[in-house]
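Run log, item B.
One chain of 351 residues. Sequence copied directly from the ordering sheet:
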Amino acid sequence: MDVADCFLDGNADVVEFCPHESFQHLLAAATYTLEEGDHPSRSGSISLFNVNADVGGDGGGLDLIHRVETAGIFDMKWNPVGDNVCPLLAQADANGHLRLHRIENAGDGTVANGSIMKEVNDEKISSSMCLCLDWNPSATSISVGLSDGSISVVSFLESQLEIVQEWKAHEFEVWATCFDHHQPNIVYTGSDDCKFSGWDLRSSSDLAFQNSRAHKMGVCCISKGLTDPHMLLTGSYDEYLRIWDIRSISKPVNETSICLGGGVWRIKQHPCIPGIVLAACMHNGFAVVKIKGDGAEVIETYSKHESLAYGADWQKISTSHEGEKKRTAVATCSFYDRCLRIWVPESTFAI
């Protein structure tokens, strides 16, 4: 069920709905555009939208609030929700920087059209490119994956960024990093070297485990179970979404996993319904997958994008009134055609 769409000012690769209450209508969309030549440059932008996905009402809307020009962005994420925490958006960019942006009106709990997003922190992480990032559950540190195979852990205390740990984690580009929400001292990483690893930050970043057999191509994304403390998902260029039980990390729980017919670049778990996953499948559009026990099945596909399916996210909706069934919209974007779409999966109504 389509709600709205628009075109961005560059190659679209990341979309992130704000999870904070009173700001859940905000969507950040990022771009990465490579200008080739004698002096190649990697430019980017963040566009902040107000999204109205109430397609049952007066119709949906997608209104641009603010746009900021920056370096080419590979990944970005909002900070986790917490007490007295204002919304902050972290970006990992091609210039090797970790930057934080704050919504200027966050102090009074309202965001109206015309609000701006202001950069409040900037830390040079490396001369290599920052490819991915993740916040720890308490929003006190951020892990960053780099194009040289390294990982940096950056503390965020008293509004300051500081690199506290760095190590060589992989042989090639690190495309995925993820904190364990149930064990915040553990960080998972995935790379073009086809290895999926776990690291214990309490022991000088010791390698807790490494699996180099399951993925036949590079590991693109990692997502820890939101409710099940033992479930973890990985996506790979080899087109498979894999389900892991971290009590037996040497192999996926479901040996065959599920082939989605395209490189699995992003996986986002439904914020309210356990076992429902939105996947960006690069050359095969987007898929909604239902995971139950050791099995998984595709329950819906979305193929209205005409380019590489890269960015995907569920809108985070606060608990609605008792008995009211709230529609959960998604945002998706595709790379070369620069397209951003808002739509509502039909399948989530039948779950």
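Observations after the first pass:
- Residues 2-350 form a domain with the Methylamine Dehydrogenase; Chain H fold (CATH 2.130.10.10).
- The first strand starts at residue 2 and ends at 7.
Flagged for discussion on Thursday.
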